[in-house]
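Note to self: keep these together.
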Amino acid sequence: MKYRWRTKAEWMADHAAMFDASPFKDDKDRRDAFLKCAERFFDQEAANSWGGQFSASGRSSTDDGVARSQYFQEIESLKKEISCPRVACALQEKRDAILEAQSEAGSRQYLNVRPPERFAELTGLLGVPLGLGLLALVAYIYNEDIGRVVNPFLARQIPSLGYSTDRQTVRYFADPNGQFDIDGRANEIWFRFVADTGAAGIVFSKADAQRLGFDTSTLRFDRTAWTANGLVRVASVQLKKLEIGPIVVVDVPAWIDDGDLQRPLLGMEFFKRVSTIEINNGTLTIHR
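Structure:
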């Protein structure tokens, strides 16, 4: 017969009637102990079938077998004492049905036909990671195509980011004042430069010099240089590396301003090291 899992109320009613049909029906303590044993077994089987953490055997990892063992011991004890063949037969049918249900629970582990609630739970847990994984895979495969669309959009929102059209070229959009801000790294330190073709060199403030690792107390401000702000006193330093977008130059002379420079200037000392600079329709294009 096809076994239908009983509700807990049905299960307990069946076992109460079973005990009441035995010679021990007047033994209240034994009746209570028998029903508690049956209840523990029911709860453990429910955990195995619907809520348990399945092991390789198909049973819950919290199932130590004690509830099952005690239950069948009680059943066998009652069967030996019950004289009514009809009740003994009913007990055997119940035990056979339980064994069939156990077999079905075990096979679910291997046939991947777990209850719908478990499947929905696993789908919910795995859905987000799988979706993110597929998104990352698509982004990796179509990285260049996506970049051609996304990077110019981002650069318009934050002009100083710029965007690369290839490994040798970077473009920047002008801000509302017509000025070109450029995010770059000097000696691995990030700065937001102002592109200044009127400045002869690359100019930093004293505070910038300290970030770059220079001791300003030992610098000699014995030179003068032209910037967009006019003639200023400067000290000469050497940058190990300067990175502007994909363009990298090394061993670059730079100056430290002795005045109150607010923003570092990216002047001709950098631009003369690239092959092409072009300003057209509010876009600065730098090509290595």
